[in-house]
Amino acid sequence: MIKQAYEEIDYKVKFSQEYFNPKLCKYDNERRDIILFDKKGNPLLYIEAKVTLNPQERAKALAQVVLTNKKQKHILNHLALIYKENGNDILEFIELLDDSVMFNNDFHWESETPSTPSRDAIDRINDRLRQSAKIIKYVNNEIKEFYANLLKREDLEISITLKNMVTIFHAWKEALTFKNEIKNEQTLINLFLVDMLNNTKYKDSLIIVGTDLGSQKPLIREGTDLNAFSIEINENKQEVKFIDDKNEKFYTIPNLQAYTAFWQKYKRPPAKDEFLKILEESHLLYTDKYRKDTGGEYTPFFFVSEQNKILEQYCLDSKTDLKDYIIYDPCCGVGNLENQFSKEIKKQCYLSTLDSKDVDICKIKDFENVVQFDYLKDSNEPEFTHGGTELTINEIVKREKKKLMVIMNPPYQNYTNYQGKRENKAISFFNKVLRLEPEVIVFYYKTEQMFSEALEAYQKSGLKMYSHIFSTAKTFNLSDWSISQMIFSKHLGDTINDKSFTAKRYERDKIGFNYVKSYAYDLERPSLVKEIDTAIKQNQKGMILGQYSYLNSTILVSNGGFEKADKITTENLKYTLLSKGLNFNSHAKYFERSPYVLKGKISEIPQELFSDAIAFSLFFKGNLFSNKPIRESAIVRGGGTN
Fold first, then answer.
1. Which spans in 365-480 are helix H?
2. What is the C-alpha separation between 275 and 221, in angstroms, rounded?
C-alpha cells in the first residue's frame, strides 16, 4: 500500500507538470488528489490520481473523487480521474448533469472517508453516475487542449482541425468496430469523413451541381456521393448505420454506447474552412502501403504554389495570360493541382478522374467541369458539357479559341493497357495527352525517371523543358522517392537531350518551401553500379573468402563457394562491401537510389565516402559468416548477421 501511494504521488506530480500549469494546482492533505484552480484562485477541478485501473478499481476511484467533491467547501459539477492505460496518459472528465449524485440521501455521506469508501457507497455512487453524468476520455495531447479550454471556461469539446485529424482518425478506428471488417482503406476513410460532419449543415452550405437548387443538402462529404450517404442511429438495436444508397451498401457499428462515448469529446462538424483544409490534406489519412499499392501520389500545397509562380512567369515570358488557356487535367484526383487558381480560372479548368467519388470533392472546390473517366481504358477522350453540347477538350479549345495547357500528376505504377501490353502508367498519360497538341504540359513524376525510359518519351514529344524543379522525399509524406515538377512548352525552354539535364532542388522547412541549389546531371557518365560490378569480377585474385549474391546484395563469408563465379577474395572484398554500402545507405529512400542515378567512376569516389560505405555495409543485414559450405538455396534466402 505504501509503495502504491508513493507511485500515485509520483505519477500525479509528473502528470501535473506535463499537462497542467503547476502554479495553478495543488494536492490536498491526504496527498491523493489534485485540485486545479483558475487564475483567480477559485477551484476548477478535483482530480483522483491512480497509476493503473481495472474495472473494480475504476468504480472505487469514481466514488473517491465524488466523495472528495462532497467534502469540499466548493462543490463542483466537474470532476476527473487520471491514470495510465496501455502506455498512454488518460484523463476521464466527469460532468455531473444534475445534483442527484451529490445531494441524494440513500447512504450516509458523513460516515464515508474519500480514501476508503464503503462497498455500499461505491455501488450507489456509480449507479448514480451512470444515470446522471457524462464521462469523456481524453488521451495524451488531447488533455492539453481540454485543460486550455477548461481554464478559459470554454466549451470543453475538442475542435476537429487539420492538425489533429490524423490522431482522431486513428482513435476512431480503434474505438469503433464495424460489424463486418472494412478492408478497403478509402471506404473506411470516407466513412470517417462522413461521420465527422454528423449530418450537420454549414451556415452557407454549398449548392452541389446535381442537387435540387431549392434545397440545402445537409452534408458536404469528401470521397462520397453527396446525395447518397446518410447516417442512421437505431436506439432499439443500439447501432449506427452508414447507408450508401447509390451503391446499395451499408456499414454498421453495433455499439451505440461506444460510438456516443467517442464523439462526446469532439466538436462536430469542423468549421467549414477547416474542413476544406482537411479535404486538401486528406491523403495524410492513407497508409504509405495503400498509396503505393494504388500508385497514387498527392501533390503538397506548397509544391503547387511553386507551380503557379512558375506558370505566372511563363505567361510573362510568352506574353500570354492564364485566361488565354483551357486547362485540362486527365487524372485530377481531388483537384489539388488546380485548387489554388482563382474562381475565374477554375471555370476554364476541365478535369477528369477515375473515381466518381472524387468528382464530388472537385465540385466542393468550385470546379464546374468535372467528369468520371478511365483515361487509359481506350483511345477516346472524355466529353464535357459545354454550351449545352457534349464536347471533347480539343473541341472546347477550338470553340473558345484558346490554347491548351495540361496539368497532371498521374499514378506511377505499371499496368496492362487496353491492347494487352505492359506499360508505365505515367508515361502512358504523357503520351496520350501529346495527341491533343497542348501548348504547355505541367507534369509530375519520379525524378529518377529522367535517367530511364521517361527521358526517351520527353525527347520524342518535341517539347522543350521550360522548368524542372524537384524535392526530396521528406517533402512528400507518402513517398520514398524524389518528385519532379516539369513544365514542358512548345516554344520556350531548353531542348531535351540524352546527354544531360538540369534541375533545381527545393526543400520544405518551418518557414516555407525554399530553393536549395541547382544540379546539372551528366547522363554520359558511366553507371557506378556497373563500374563496381566490373571491379569485383576483375579483382578475384587472392584468398577466397566466400561469395557475393547479386540477387540481394548478401555477402557470404565462409570456406565454401570456391566453384562459384561471384567469388569474394582478399582483393575484391572492399568492392563488394562498397557495392553493398551504396545500395543500402539512406540514399535508397531519396534521389540517388538506383543504378540509373549512381553515376561516375570508382576513382572519383572521395576516400571518406568510400570508407563510410564499407563501414555501413558491415552493420547492415545480409552478412553471413559460417565455417560450413553454403548451399545455393541459402544464398537466395539471405538472412541476418550470425
1. 393-400, 425-434, 453-461
2. 9
Q: With CA atoms as reference, report the closest residue to 397 among 388, 386, 407.
A: 386
Q: Does domain 293-522 have CATH number 3.40.50.150?
A: yes
How far is residue 477's CA from residue 480's CA, in Å, rounded to a whole number? 9
Q: What is the pLDDT of residues 220-229, one digit of tens each?
A: 433 434 445 6
What is the overall mean pLDDT for the chain?
80
- DSSP H helices in 475-518: none
Amino acid at 620: F
Q: DSSP 3-state assignment of 471? A: strand
Instruction: Give me the sign of the Cα torsion angle 46, 50, 54, 56.
Output: negative
Q: Is 87 exposed, middle or buried (0-12, 13-18, 19+ CB in 10 A)?
A: exposed
Grid coordinates standing for 480?
520514398
CA angle 288, 365, 327 (to 5 degrees): 90
Burial per residue of 327-344, b for 16 or more beta-carbon CB atoms within 10 angstroms, e otherwise = bbbbbbbbbbbbbebeee
What is the value of pTM for the model shown? 0.61
Tens of pLDDT, residue by residue over 467-481, are 999 987 566 555 556
Task: Specify which residues 326 forms β-bridges with.
Answer: 404
Q: What is the rounded distance in angstroms from the CA atom of residue 506 to the CA atom of residue 500? A: 20
Q: Report yes or no: 413 and 343 within 8 Å, Cβ to Cβ.
A: no
User: Which pairs count as long-range contacts for 537-542, CB under 8 Å and 24+ apart, including other chains?
Assistant: 537/572, 538/572, 539/569, 539/571, 539/572, 539/575, 540/567, 540/569, 540/571, 540/572, 541/569, 541/571, 542/569, 542/570, 542/571, 542/572
Backbone angles phi, psi at 353, to 5 degrees: -145, 150
Other beta carbons within 10 angstroms of residue 557's beta carbon come to 19
Say if CB 383 and CB 330 are below 8 A apart: no
42: buried, middle or exposed (CB in 10 Å: 19+, 13-18, 0-12)? exposed
Instruction: Please answer whether residues 341 and 349 qualify as being in contact, where contact means their C-beta atoms are separated by less than 8 angstroms.
Output: yes
Which amino acid is present at 618? L
Burial code (b: 16+ CB inside 10 Å, e: under 16) for 503-541 equals bbbbebeeeebeeeeeeeeeeeeebbbebbbebbeebee
Positions of E strands within 9-97: 25-27, 33-37, 43-49, 78-85, 88-96
**Does residue 471 contact residue 505 with C-beta atoms inside 8 Å?**
yes
Indicate the SS3 state at residue 385.
strand
Phi then psi for residue 52, to 5 deg, are -140, 160
Q: Where are the domains of the chain?
A: 2-156, 165-285, 293-522, 528-637
Residue 153 is which amino acid?
A: R
- Does residue 80 contact residue 93 with C-beta atoms inside 8 Å? yes
Which residue from 195, 201, 205 is spatially nearest to 165, judged by alpha carbons? 195
Place of cell 497532371: 408
Using CA atoms in the order 614, 616, 622, 628, what is the torsion angle rounded to 10 degrees? 50
Q: Could you count the other beta carbons within 10 Å of the beta carbon of residue 261?
A: 16
Model confidence at 61, pLDDT cuts 50, 70, 90, reads: very high
- Cβ neighbours for 510, distance < 8 A, ≥ 6 positions apart: none
Q: First and final CA of the chain: distance in angstroms?
A: 47
C-alpha distances (whole Å) from 32 to each of 6, 18, 21, 65, 81 are 10, 18, 18, 10, 11
- Which band of pLDDT confidence, cut at 50, 70 and 90, is reported for residue 560? low
